[in-house]
Design goal:
With 592 residues, this protein is mainly α. It contains 24 helices and 5 strands. A 3-stranded mixed β-sheet has the order 3-4-5. Strands 1-2 form a two-stranded antiparallel sheet. A hairpin with a 2-residue loop joins strand 4 and strand 5. The radius of gyration is 29 Å and the shape is elongated. The protein starts with 7 loop residues before the first helix and ends with a helix.
Length: 592
């Protein structure tokens, strides 16, 4: 792979002369460094695009330019994806989870650069999505392909994949602890103590890389942490409940909006124009939706909330406190529309930064609302920061990542108690309504998600199409006993599917049921197969999950069951073949 060719010979020597554990530790340094450089490149790329857009806006002085610009960015991304990547980009953390569970943690090589390019263009041109998911994909691709280059097994390749993701998050936020926790909570379902060391090394290297190159100009950083008073606990519990409910709304709304764009999946440019127009309309009404939204969050945190109204048509009504509060509340709810439209229209980005945007606005809204009723009571900047953790915890189902990320980007642990309260309450509420996170929900519905339960994981990996046995000799229901004896003589199996001319299964014939009469030649022309056949104890459809198939085996006590597509006979599936495949996959997921 080109990123590591300079070091290939020394690394090959190390691969041969060091243990697997030591080589993984060395690899984690290089993966962390490269992922850190990718994060720096992405941030720099977005910075220069936004500088160009700002210059263009000043030069042309056209009031509707910032409405058109996001559509242009989405169209450019769609064009690049179709021409350079054949339409195959694979967006978001969900795609990495799919590759871990279904593709042995093998990530396409182009994802080491394609997500930096496409997400940079999307966000730089004002697309309302985050850069964190693309950098997770980029870091994961770097780690996975490093493992492939040096022929590491599935377990070590998956670990390096997670190292790349941890380094990417750590570099973006200068938050190595959050990077490690993100990899553990979101990507790795089976973690051992030994895996912590490579994750920590990669995260630290990634964060240092970003910090040295960018100095203090990190993508997102707070410096105004306020103190916490025990009397504020009830209000933070209230914030946790609010964040939990908004997280449920966020998760469900994303899938509903995605479904609206489903009819346009094969009309990519039409989809981009429609989505870009909708996004432009939203930005015209709510300018803070332009781009990731970190500028808006910083205004809330620095007690400059009144500036959020700048550029909005609502600004003509003046600086009214209740108008500002309503505007901020609407932003908290409508950001999900802007983000999902950006991604569904063809742009590239994630829901990490939008979750923080929603949380910050929800936290500020609650604190300002209570302060308007009872002035000066609550620290609004603290609620802004803690709200980010609440929504992040609820949407991503990653409470530890949320807590330590906000703690790290605020430069201290002053707000640790409210962070833990809000994240825990929000997560508990979301978990009750939504068992899976936003990224995992659709994968879980398709049975494509790894779980900590190895048995369940292996059953999900197994596919019916690989287990159907077709060497069983079919017979017609009108076949005579004499014809049946000829079929039995040329078969190695003791079960015979009885099918009609249309391949419809009408029954099964067991050798043990005809053994006593198969030598009675006087019945060869009078006894028909349909008189001897029985109905199978159950049938399996070709698209049944392995969990469903095993339940049918357990309920019937059978060792072989026919597989159908509707009513059409396809073959049989046997319990012994399932056990054999299970043992092979178990070895792969443990020893490899």
């Amino acid at each position: 792979m080109p990123y590591f060719k300079k070091y290939k010979l020394p690394l090959l020597w190390l691969r041969r002369h060091t243990s697997d554990r030591d080589f993984v530790l060395i690899s984690s340094v290089l993966v962390g460094f490269t992922a850190g450089l990718a994060a720096v490149a992405l941030k720099t790329f977005v910075h220069y695009i936004q500088a160009f857009v700002t210059y263009l806006n000043r030069l042309m002085e056209w009031p509707f330019l910032l409405i058109v610009i996001p559509m242009v960015g989405i169209l450019i991304v769609v064009f690049l994806v179709r021409t350079l990547l054949n339409g195959n980009l694979g967006r978001g953390t969900a795609n990495i989870l799919y590759l871990i569970s279904q593709k042995s943690s093998i990530v396409e090589r182009h994802k080491m650069y394609s997500h930096v390019l496409t997400s940079g263009i999307t966000a730089g041109f004002g697309g309302s999505a985050g850069l964190e998911s693309p950098i997770v994909v980029t870091g994961s691709a770097i780690g996975s392909n490093f493992g492939r280059e040096y022929h590491l097994n599935y377990r070590d390749r998956t670990l390096l994949l997670a190292c790349g993701a941890a380094a990417g998050i750590a570099a973006v936020f200068n938050a190595p602890i959050a990077g490690v926790l993100f990899a553990i909570e979101v990507l790795l379902t089976d973690i051992s103590i030994a895996a912590f060391i490579p994750l920590i090394i990669s995260a630290v290297v990634g964060a240092l890389c970003s910090r040295i190159i960018l100095q203090e100009d990190i993508l997102f950083y707070f410096s105004h942490a306020q103190s916490f008073a025990a009397g504020e606990v009830p209000y933070f519990i209230l914030l946790g409940i609010l964040c939990g409910l908004i997280s449920v709304y966020y998760t469900r709304m994303v899938h509903k909006i995605e479904d609206l764009f489903e009819p346009y999946q094969n009309q990519v440019y039409k989809r981009a124009i429609i989505g870009g127009a909708l996004l432009g309309l939203l930005i015209m009404l709510f300018p803070p939706l332009f781009g990731e939204g970190y500028t808006s969050i910083k205004l809330l945190e620095s007690n400059s909330a009144a500036l959020i109204l700048q550029g909005s048509p609502l600004a003509v009504f003046g600086e009214n406190e209740w108008l500002l509060l309503g505007f901020i509340g609407i932003l908290a709810l409508i950001k999900v529309f802007a983000t999902t439209v950006t991604i569904s229209a063809g742009g590239n980005g994630g829901n990490f930064a939008p979750s923080m945007f929603v949380g910050a606005h929800a936290g500020f809204f609650l604190a300002r609302f209570l302060n308007l009723l009872q002035p000066g009571k609550l620290p609004e900047s603290s609620f802004t920061m803690v709200g980010m953790a609440g929504i992040l915890s609820g949407v991503m189902h990653a409470p530890l990542t949320a807590v330590f990320l906000i703690a790290e980007i605020t430069g201290g642990y002053v707000l640790m108690i409210p962070l833990m309260i809000v994240s825990a309450v929000a997560f508990a509420i979301v978990k009750y309504f939504e068992p899976y996170s936003l990224d995992k929900k659709k994968l879980a519905q398709k049975g494509q998600l790894l779980t900590p339960n190895k048995d369940r994981t292996i059953l999900r990996i197994m596919k019916m199409r690989h287990l159907i046995e077709t060497e069983f000799q079919p017979v017609l229901p009108s076949a005579t006993l004499g014809e049946l004896v000829q079929v039995i003589a040329n078969s190695k199996r003791n079960i015979f599917p009885v099918v009609d001319e249309n391949q419809k299964l009408v029954g099964v014939l067991l050798l043990e049921n005809v053994r006593e009469i198969m030598f009675k030649t006087e019945k060869y022309d009078t006894l028909l197969t349909e008189m001897l056949m029985i109905q199978p104890p159950d049938i399996v459809q070709h698209d049944d999950t392995m969990a469903t198939v095993m339940k049918k085996f357990d309920a019937t006590g059978a060792w072989n069951l026919p597989v159908l597509e509707g009513e059409k006979y396809l073959g049989f599936v046997s319990k012994s073949s399932i056990f054999t495949k299970y043992r092979k996959l178990l070895i792969k997921t443990t020893e490899q």
